[in-house]
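call fold(seq) -> tokens
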Amino acid sequence: MPGDDLTRLRIAITAFFALDGFVFAGWVVRIPAVKEQIGASAGDLGLALLGVSAGAVITMTLTGRLCRRFGSHPVTVVCAVLLSLSVALPPLTHSVLALALVLLLFGAAYGGMNVAFNSAAVDLIAALRRPIMPVFHAAFSLGGMVGAGLGGLVAGFLSPTRHLLGLTVIGLLVTAAAGRTLLRHQPPAPAAPAPSEGRTPRLPKTRGPGRGRGRGLVTVFGLIALCTAYGEGALADWGALHLEQDLDAHPGVAAAGYSCFALAMTVGRLTGTALLQRLGPVRTVMAGGATAAAGMLLGSLAPSVWAALAGFAVTGLGLANLFPIAVERAGALAGPGGVAVASTLGYGGMLLGPPAIGFMADWYSLPTALTSVAVLAAVASAIGCAIGIGARRAAAVRP
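ret:
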């Protein structure tokens, strides 16, 4: 495929990553208003949010097959249309059951779109032979930052119904513009290996012997993705409510909490390629998990709004590159199938985390429930350490 076409594909896929973060953040910053509208408790809201999880998990298990049959590009476009339309529905509900049903549709579109555009990104990375997955995920974070920031600006004077309907219009316009590029081009074929790649890192392969071990490692990377994406989902759905409910923050300031988190993730991911080249994936996972754990302890237990915001930002820096590393390593080990497994586990953690936080908030308190993000970040760091130890032992016994 010509270089110009690859550039167009990269721009289009980046636009869908950004759109996904923008729409999702626009919804999450209005969760407190929708919660008040339907008169839901924290536990009731957790049950309703389970609709997002259920829809996403069901769709994720099917999207890989749909991508193989119809291609990742058309599936991405269709899911983007459904996501843009469904985001306008939550403010129209007036009961927990109705909210759960519309969030089931929203979750289905969200989950399908994430698997589809990650698969499209993997194909493009193979053609470019450049480790740019963190850049795509930086676009998602940037979209989330803009969506949350816009939500904070309009929260004081624009109703959730009008705000989310505006997101629908923006989403359909972006899909129409970027979708044409995806629909005109097939996924590119992998580039032929260069005779000499200098200092470019080689990706491990698991063809033939060792495939069983490769599948096991794919699952391990999926667990890292799950642990870290749990934190993204928890902060997205509960961060604003924690600031507003527990620390008496103004709704606009509360909405800025997720914006701080998304901005820190964006910065971390934009520098992710350089960090990986300097530290390597294992050390990056270990350091990132430890940093996120410390940041989330501050964010959840701090007695002031500004300290909590600082904790959210540190958490975003720590988590920034863990999910992209997990997805890219899984793809290097097992191809698109590995990406599907890691993505499904990861986004499952992102979508199952918020309901779990809701239940724990009912049993204990919301700040206590949010400390579970720190616990799982520490688990991800420990898994990275175990992978590093295993790799060193394997290298020591290799003839």
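Residues 195-210 have pLDDT under 50 and may be disordered.
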